[in-house]
Amino acid sequence: MKSITALLVLGVLLRIDSSYGKLPSAIRVCSRNDPDLNTCVTNSVIALRPLLASGKFSDDFSVPPLEPLALSNINMDQGQEFKATFSRLLVDGPSQFQIDNLKVNLDKLTFDFNIYLPKLAFRGKYDLKMRLLLLNIAGSGDLKGVIENARARVKLFNEKYEKDGQVYMRAKRLLVKIQIEKGQFDLKDLFNGDPVLSQVGNQFINDNSRLFLDELTPGLERSLSETFKNTANEILQLATMDDIFPPA
Questions:
Q1: I need a labelling partner for 224 at 20 to 30 A (CA). Which of 86, 117, 218, 240 fits?
Q2: Rounded-to-integer distance, Cα 139 and Cα 136, Å
């Protein structure tokens, strides 16, 4: 779940970076000719964290807030071993993100960077069927938990195209590798709401949280990569290349 939020922060970063020509003066523009473009973009994004928390940049412009961050459905299916749907998710803590090692290559139109989130608290709904070690775990209901030390390595590949005589950029591929240090989960109504079995199931998941998180990660990487590629393209179509990275 923390990786979900890490990547949603990524989506907001893409919105910011791709809309310089449209956004309020609070956003610092970085010229394509800046000799230290990577640092300029990184500092611009970090300076926006207070505005990203509320989502309100001005009276005329806003984005979905990071506090709390609302997520759409996340569906994962790895056959009989793991099937899960997480919905109506709200996450607290993503505005505390840190971004580093950002590399912008305007010739190849790639963005490469790390995101770190110290702590995320989440709540929502779940529907789960999985086999963890020798135990079959199933249930649906309310979900809450806490994630600490979430890291994601992200690489975005873009391409140019022309529209109405203007040059635009769109996301072609988004690669994400997620590392999750630890998490604590509370899934209500496991085993059809049996209170004893539900407690046992939660204890088993948390005692083996590394295995549980390892089951979640591949599906999250795939679904979130596609989700944020589509989100990036919705935003990128609003601004030309000159809007995104203006000449000096």
A1: 240
A2: 10
Tell me the C-alpha distance between 153 and 141, whole Å: 31
3-state secondary structure of 192: helix
Distance CA 91, CA 119 (A): 10
Angle between helices 2-17 and 37-47 (to 10 degrees): 110
> Which of helix, strand or coil describes residue 166?
strand
Cβ atoms of 225 and 4 closer than 8 Å = no
3-state helix, strand, coil in the chain (%, to 5): 35, 45, 25
SS3 readout for 115-137: EEEEEEEEEEEEEEEEEECCEEE
pTM of the model: 0.75
Q: What are phi and psi for residue 67, nearest 5 degrees?
A: -130, 105
DSSP run (H or E) holding 178 = strand 166-187
User: Is 114 within 8 Å of 164 (Cβ atoms)?
Assistant: no
| Residue 82 and residue 73 in contact, taking contact as beta carbons nearer than 8 Å | no
